[in-house]
Amino acid sequence: xxLLWIAGIVCGATVAAAAAFVVSPWWWLAVVPLGxxxxxxxxDLLQVRHSVLRNYxxxxxxxxxxxxxxxxxxxxxxxxxxxxxxxxxxxxxxxYERAKGIDAEEPFGTELDLYASGRxxxxxxxxxxxxxxxxxxxRIGGPDCTRPYDMALLNVSAMSFGSLSANAVxxxxxxxxxxxxxxxxxxxxxxxxHLRPGGDLVxxxxxxxxxxxxxxxxxxxALFAEKAAHPQVRCVSLKLSQGAKPGIGGVLPGPKVDxxxxxxxxxxxxxxxxxxxxxRVFTTPRELxxxxxxxxxxxxxxxxxxxxxxxxxxxxxxxxxxxxxxxVAPDFIVVDGAxxxxxxxxxxxxxxxxxxxxxxxxxxHNALVGTGLRDRIRIGxxxxxxTGSDLVKRLIQGADYTNAARAMMFALGCIQAxxxxxxxxxxxxxxxxxxxxxALHVGDKSQRVRRYQEATVKSALQIMAAMGxxxxxxxxxxxxxxxxxxxxxxxxADLHPWLAPGQLLQDPPRSWAPDWEAAHPDRFTV
Length: 526
Hints:
Layout (H helix, E strand, L loop, with lengths): L3 H19 L5 H19 L4 H5 L5 H8 L1 H11 L10 H9 L20 E3 L15 E3 L8 E3 L2 E3 L9 H14 L2 E3 L7 H4 L4 E6 L15 H8 L4 E7 L11 E2 L6 H7 L7 E2 L10 H14 L5 E5 L4 H14 L5 E5 L10 H6 L4 H14 L7 E5 L5 H9 L4 E4 L1 H7 L21 H4 L4 H25 L13 E6 L2 E4 H4 L7 H4 L6 H6 L8
Parallel strand pairs: 4-13, 5-6, 6-7, 7-10, 10-11, 11-12, 12-13
Antiparallel strand pairs: 1-14, 2-3, 8-9, 14-15
């Protein structure tokens, strides 16, 4: 139906041309505009740079016309403070420009309200250093890991095949292969589209155990070991919860479960798939860490970890106590912020459940430091990481590396139409309609993903150099400051307690003591 009117235009142009020769030359007045529209439609359908134009030839140019007057529209909203919130710089524009290889620079300074409470600042140095010529990498692999992996500072966060189109997954993985960074599969299984381009993978296993499940939905160790042995699978990750909807599972409606998705996930075709809110393979912190050790053994020593959206400090401390008593620890932990993400979720969960990334990240970092486990466990941060400044802030707050989902979708061409759940994505990112998915040209969009990641890491290194450091390990909490009110600015070193190595084992500080006392390795509940 989207292209039916184009067919009508072509027919009209043909009829008008015939009439111009047979009936009257005046018909050329109709042939010219109809022919021009036909030529423009053909050009739009054949080009590969703009997915919107491939799905909406001719009409899609209206979007680009509106983009042309965006600065004037932004100023309108700035002056009127529309929706009651201070207008912030359009992060999507930064991502789009970097993906296209355009320097994201603007004249006349910032338009942000630098005196707004909560505004954060990175501290520049009067003695900046040279920007490193090579981006540092993070070695992931504790003492029980025999096949460590060097992770990039910015990677593709978890997004499943089924949520994303085949072309979107192909482009993400091809971009990761070209740029040398990792691609998290999401919990929807390990598909040929993850494997075909050759990029490094973090295989994520959720509560549904998709891709490694038995017929009744239990974890299948033999199937897991078989797929984890694939050379592109560099790490395996167990998803405990996600920022968009911690504490509940997902639902994939039966009409979307076609033969291909059913095969990848190991579920019946055409039947609604429900991910349980909890895992079957463990019920206590002790059982969790034992299962992590089992996964690592089944994966032949590859780095193994878990992802969570933090809620209760005492529950995470219970996991730390289980690690200490069992002598087993993950190689990495990914902290997902309650800011949400690309996963669809009930509004109440998105708005009110789970800790934001800042608090969750610092909780995990300090808990691991305080229990003497931090040196063997790397921390990834996931939650609205889009720019170099985002990356640097997360490193200061306790992360070793970061993952991005929404920004990677923007790099693919996502225009945030918020129609992901309808299967009618206008740019072919979140749809399984083959006619819509074809709009996403894998070769073009994979280059955009690579350019975006490269430019963002480069930006982070430039910011760190301006701060006087040439390695993430030199970043300290006092280098990030927050405005408390129009007259007061305080650093993260003063705003938050930072535990010393092993402090919880020796003399827990008053602010941590009740949670440490309540934590028990054999129960999650207090």
